[in-house]
């Protein structure tokens, strides 16, 4: 079922320093809310910078949906410290607002106005706004306000240099891309472990179920919030936010060329459903960037994506084609409500272990049947992951094992990888994290989703959400005097507004010409 990687782990033990410099980045989304829990009606605050050009603070779908982006770093503590400083800086500039601590917006009325994110008058800014208008017209505005955390991960160059010597591969770019795609296939195969451990959206607002059919029987709390007793992350389900099926697009992560080809085809292929929406309204305003299956690469919402830093004027597809995969983006993390900044060090340590493990397991190319079974496993964990003696498929012969049985096999390897990483750091944090996560399988009540359900039923979502939002806001304000990046962020705010103005003044094309180009 799972490949024996003892020889590979032995190689790492003999060469531990090749894992010394893992690079990471975090993107955290959060809704700005009023003191009573309602969606903020204010535009993106000028005092925290231009969302078009600010390096670290921007917006996602709507004006009130903040996105914090850390620099890339090989130091976990620096990464978390910078993310905390972004929160402190923003809280200081928006004292009369709070940040919603959950992934799901639970209190929403049909009359609620959700303003689409605005990025100024430049062609680039208009394009970003119209892309979001397209998302609203295609999938609705409420689903687009669901928040998450994205974790960017890359193994050290020295790791690939040493690892390549164990094979007969020559071309480094193709080799590294192939290895990252292998990691991604394994993530799809076993990545359900992430929502099992860290999923924190076992409940959802009734607004999300309108016009949707589901085979699951939801219960209600006193606030009329719907929940499932064994669920982990409804955010990742088809009643949360999903748009396209990777199988339908023939995206299997088997090789980079086929991935690029399939993604490019989706961007260029008209969709009957989206043609019916229309490209423009009667006044000539764009309703979406185009009527194709995907407006652009970013619209491919999947659990993990291959990424590469792009050059000016270069698309992600071009960057991947020209220089290969540089890192992977994990997109299946709910907001951690027990952390003021939405993610904890413990989660990062476990993600490191698990992603290294995914890189070590050789997984041949997969077909639609394999991918369909992995999707079934994700669905099982998302909706009923904490159910006693829960089983998942272990191969395409439809054989099953319990989560506890599968987890024991995985953690046997993770324990050894943890000792290697701890050797590099001269501590035992990875091993300690590994031990704690093992307990989550022995006792599902320890999982984030189980803890979430406890206060959903005991205290209610609104009371708990506002309590946490106020608690974290006060902590951000109180700790802002320790914000070592305060001056950097003040300067970046000024620079971002200047940069946006410069972009607007430099436009030479009409917007129609810009879109065609």
UniProtKB/TrEMBL annotation:
Gene3D superfamilies: 3.30.590.20. SUPFAM superfamilies: Glutamine synthetase/guanido kinase. Keywords: ATP-binding, Glutathione biosynthesis, Ligase, Nucleotide-binding. The keyword Nucleotide-binding applies. GO terms for cellular component: cytosol. It catalyses: L-cysteine + L-glutamate + ATP = gamma-L-glutamyl-L-cysteine + ADP + phosphate + H(+). The keyword Ligase applies. GO terms for biological process: glutathione biosynthetic process. Pathway: Sulfur metabolism; glutathione biosynthesis; glutathione from L-cysteine and L-glutamate: step 1/2. It comes from the Bacteria. Pfam families: Glu_cys_ligase (PF04262). Its EC number is 6.3.2.2. GO terms for molecular function: ATP binding; glutamate-cysteine ligase activity; metal ion binding. InterPro entries: Gln_synth/guanido_kin_cat_dom, Glu_cys_ligase, Glut_cys_ligase. HAMAP family: Glu_cys_ligase. NCBIfam families: glu_cys_ligase. Belongs to the glutamate--cysteine ligase type 1 family. Type 1 subfamily. This is Glutamate--cysteine ligase. The lineage of its organism: Bacteria, Pseudomonadati, Pseudomonadota, Gammaproteobacteria, Enterobacterales.
